[in-house]
Amino acid sequence: MPADRGRRGPGRSPATVVATLTAGKAVRSGAVWGAVFALYVTASALGYASAYKTPQARALLAAQFGSNFGINAIIGPAHHIDTVAGFTAWRTLGVLSIVGAAWGLLIGTKLLRGEEEAGRWEALLAGQTTRRRATAQAIAGLAVGVVTLWTVTAVVSVAVGRSSKVDFAPEAVLFLAVSLVSAAAVFVCIGALASQLAATRRQAAAYAGAVLGVAYALRMMADSGTGLEWLRWTTPLGWVEELRPLNATRPVWLLPIGGLILVSAGLAIHLAGRRDLGASTFLDRSTSRPRLRLLTGPTGLTVRLVRPLFAGWAIGIACLGLMMGVIAKSVGTALSDNALFQQAINRLGGRGAGASAYLAVTFLIAALLVSLIAAGQAGAARGEEAEGRLDNLLVRPVSRSRWLATRLAIVTVALILAGLVAGLATWVGAASQDAGVGFATLLQAGLNLVPPAVFVLGVGVLTLGLWPRGVATVSYGLLAWSFLVEIIGGVVNANHWLLDTSVLHHMAAAPAVDPNWASGGVLLGAGLLAAIVGGVFFGRRDLAPE
Amino acid sequence: MAELAVRTEGLSKRYGTVDALADLDLDVSVGEVVGYLGPNGAGKTTTIRLLLGLIGPSAGRSEIFGLDSQRQAVQAHRRLGYVAGEANLWPSLTGAETLHLLGRVQGAVDEAYRDELIDRFALDPSKKVRAYSKGNRQKLILIAALMTRPDLLVLDEPTSGLDPLMEQAFRHCIHEAKERGQTVFLSSHILSEVEALCDRVGILRAGRLVEMGTMAQLRHLSALTVEATFDGSVPDLSRVAGVSAVQTDGRVVRCQVRGSVEPLLKVLAACGVHELLSREPSLEELFLAHYGSDGVVADAR
């Protein structure tokens, strides 16, 4: 973000400057993600309509997925999926609520705590506004971003709904769009609240992320068919599910959603007035005993900086693996007779059955998480450069290539560890239920997650060399695209050229099949090559601040 | 010829159509303290980032102790300490951890001197960087650069955010460095700081070095201010050779004299001068002479 964006433009009233600045950034982001949402709605509706043309095919799909607790646990229960409307609502709500919630908490913490941490609020608050008013304005600006997300999603979806294959009523589509952005709106406000509690943006995002994790886990348990359906009422993601867009709509569930939005936004504004600028509500230790062991050079520094973040990811991946491992056997048994699921697994390159086949699908989510670490670390490397911290090393006897190579080596080790954690935790869960999937098989399935992540890291570094300001866009964009293609490809017969554009598609569907180390090797090699080329360009170009 | 700590030849940097730095030829001898003046956007930071190899030149080259600052940056940086105008550090590290890290990366630290600097700048090293004020963060990077006793100190507006007491402590450190034979390249727009510390001064304007010399040389190029009070009638001084900017206030006349003062003295002696004051221009006046009284030039970047 260029530094000059923080300046006040001519003609902006001091009373609304924070709202205007925040809205400007939120609208850009909301428009981009609105396009992603719209694309996903389009792909789901049109894909279903063309793949399942006959009532028989649709009835078969409904029979198979309607009672599939594994899939229900991951993306929510399927209602009326023998219709385009039912299928579209089920598929889009399940996936986009999570994407939207993650977007909301990230942008909420970025534009509140992030801006404050960067010192940009100091100048604004020295003017004519108070902390409380500025926070209210920032939340209003974020609301404009959410409205943009809704508008882009709604406009495209209404247009798609007019297609004769799909045939959705415009008002039903508008309510679908409301449902799809509800989780985003809630988590924008959770992010705003977390920004008041934590001292740094990273910490705030971690708090809000923990809330999302708990909300998702509760929703999963509720939808696992274990008699805990009432848990759905305890989580905002459950409320979103209860909106049932395009089917038997239940707008009454907008009340708790709106209530949570108002309460968290109100609390955020209230807490903003009770603390000092730059301070947090939770006590932040401003002093600490020096821990010098690792601080001997760029290597130790990177380990020190990456460690807490990695620990958070590892815990998340371990929880997911454990949970998936525990339910693998029961879900796998139900799935073994499911032709459609087998077909989806086959499209992903798998040939297994039972628990292994189910775990192959859940490892796709683990692959996404491990690759997200890679994308995040490519962005973090750029962050060190953009925020000027890298200068402190490069004006001393440290070369750019040494710094980058060290960093990449450490991140690669972290990715391998993350893969092993996924395999190990899944094995612990699966073994506890005697699911019959071996330790070595799952550990290999865990390692199988590493090549796509290394590829994403490599592409991130290539971008760092060629287009430093685009690192986050390219690496997260590649992942988001890959995941969407996988989800679409799992349901409809997508063109193989389209499937090949997904980095996750080149990963064997382990543990349903043995990992394909040859294709993994190609991904690793391509990632390494991209990183080397990126490193060469990074070594030659001017360092570029924000 | 004395060994050179810094040498640039035709060093230039273009951003699009703008010359951030144009054709800079600069020599800084070992042991010299050189001031580098110019308003914001004149190209000071661009010069320093080129010298440090953080950005590459569009044309020309630069050397630090004879080492190419682009190709041999790592070797050159072993002998160099740098202080940026804005301290961007890792917020989760404490002051002590930051100093330890930067010292280990640099290689050699005078630990006794480091502790003395921490005292002198009254820094609490147990605090986390994110809890420091701007001034304290600035002190931290100053200490980090000074504690290794580098052969060359490259300072880019190093006292921004420091209070006057700390500014004094900084000046003391630079005097010490000079006494020890260290070379200092000080970019600043605080003129009194440069005047007090520097052997030579360069003035940069819109990416071009417009003046370079000792204070005496620069003063010689500029006008002397003369104020004369007469007993009787006031003569017309505007036609005297070398005299300009004549202002008359009753029996007091102020004017500027360039070159020899002899013609003026002859006229004054003949007219019955009651009191005569003359003053050399301050660096501020020299600086303003290059920039106009508002100090404004076009932004170089």
Radius of gyration of chain B, taken over Cα atoms and rounded to an integer in Å: 23 Å
The ordered string of helix (H) and strand (E) elements of chain A is HHHHHHHHHHHHHHHHHHHH
Number of strands of chain B: 14
Estimate the helix proportion of chain A, in percent.
over 70%
| Bulk shape of chain B | elongated
Percent of residues in beta strands of chain A = under 5%
Oligomerization state: heterodimer
Structural class of chain B: alpha/beta
List the chains of the largest interface with their residue counts.
A-B, 36 and 40 residues
Low-confidence stretches of chain B: 293-301
- Rg of chain A, rounded, reads 23 Å
| Class by alpha and beta content of chain A | mainly alpha
Distance between the termini of chain B: 36 Å
Question: Can you put this structure into words, describing what you see?
Answer:
The complex is a heterodimer of chains A (546) and B (301). Chain A is an all-alpha fold. Helix content of chain A is 73%, strand content 0%. Chain A has 20 helices and no strands. The radius of gyration of chain A is 23 Å and the shape is globular. Chain A starts with 16 loop residues before the first helix and ends in a 6-residue tail after the last helix. Chain B is of the alpha/beta class and 301 residues long. Chain B is built from ten helices and 14 strands. In chain B, β7, α6 and β8 form a beta-alpha-beta unit. In chain B, α3 runs parallel beside α5. The longest helix of chain B is centred in the middle third of the chain and has 16 residues. Chain B is elongated and about 75 Å long. The C terminus of chain B is likely disordered. At the A-B interface, α11 and α14 of A face α2 and α3 of B.
